[in-house]
Amino acid sequence: MSDLLERLRSRGWRMTAQRRVVAEVLDGDHVHLTADEVHARAARRLPEISRATVYNALGELVALGEVAEVSTDGRAKRYDPNARRPHQHLVCSGCGTIRDVHPAGDPLAGFPESERMGFTVSKVEVTYRGLCPSCS
């Protein structure tokens, strides 16, 4: 499991019941939920939680750098609690399942200086696409 709740506590994030349930829904490995999915799961635990509260909590988590917004297919943004550990994504072209992957090596190693056109690269986003075992 990810350590999202522990990280938020250590940062002094005010842990209301609503914020806690949003963080609990997001906590774990390979979690890439849309805001609507977060709301649906949170509402099962805390029926009175509003969609606006979920969106506000997600916005705060992204602003804190504790959750990353992921957009891999032009559809709804997904929220990834694995924001602190550099990783890439493996996306199923069939069902849309997303998995975090950690290939060895520097992703910039194959990107020569001559192709960077003077840019100072600060972040690399790589998405691998294919079919998951269920869709193969």
Strand content: 15-25%
- Major β-sheet strand ordering: 1-3-2
What is the total tally of β strands? 6
Q: What structural class do you assign from the helix and strand content?
A: alpha+beta
Main sheet properties: 3 strands, antiparallel
* Uncertain stretches: none
Give the topology string: H per helix, E per strand: HHEHHEEEEE
List the quaternary state of the chains.
single chain
What would the average pLDDT be, to the nearest integer? 88
**Gyration radius over CA:** 17 Å
Number of helices: 4
State the share of residues found in helices, binned by percent.
25-40%
Large-scale geometry: globular
The first-to-last residue Cα distance is 27 Å
Structure description:
This protein has 136 residues and is of the alpha+beta class. Helix content is 31%, strand content 15%. It is built from four helices and six strands, in the order ααβααβββββ. A hairpin with a 7-residue loop joins strand 2 and strand 3. Helix 2 packs across helix 3 (35-45) and helix 3 crosses helix 4 (51-64). It is globular, with a radius of gyration of 17 Å. The model has no long low-confidence stretch (mean pLDDT 88).
How would you sum up this structure in a few lines?
This protein has helices at residues 4-10, 17-26, 35-45, 51-64, and strands spanning 33-34, 68-70, 78-80, 88-92, 98-101, 127-130.
